[in-house]
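Structure ticket #2291
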Amino acid sequence: MNPAFLAIALLAALASIAASDCERARPPSAERTIEIAYSKFEPPFVTVPAGVPVTFVLRNDDPIEHEWIVGTDDVHARHRTGTEPYHDKVATEVTLPAFSERTTTVTFEEAGEYHYICHLPGHEGYGMTGVVRVVGD
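Resolution: structure written out below.
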């Protein structure tokens, strides 16, 4: 057999193995849908893996605006007293106009529970809360 052909075949095989190892090393992405109806989040709990980008599809089926703020207690304390009228710059803070859908991608590095809450006046008290459970390996 031709030595040049063998060398090219060997290089192609090694490149294929390296590419498949890169694919396995890259964490898979995930997607979760959270719907809003009658001023409630559905589902009220979602579980996602730590360290993996998760795309949240947020669907507001209500005739009024809502927001989806996910984070730690200090994030929610700031939003309860804050004056930000609209959220579109931070992946964990999304404004949802009436009858709209938004997507945002978040990677939770640490396992734990992160609450998502609508902080518009009265909405949290009405029960517009949920939990993202982040699980590690």
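Closing remark: The beta strands are 30-37, 40-42, 45-49, 53-60, 66-71, 93-96, 100-107, 112-117, 129-135.
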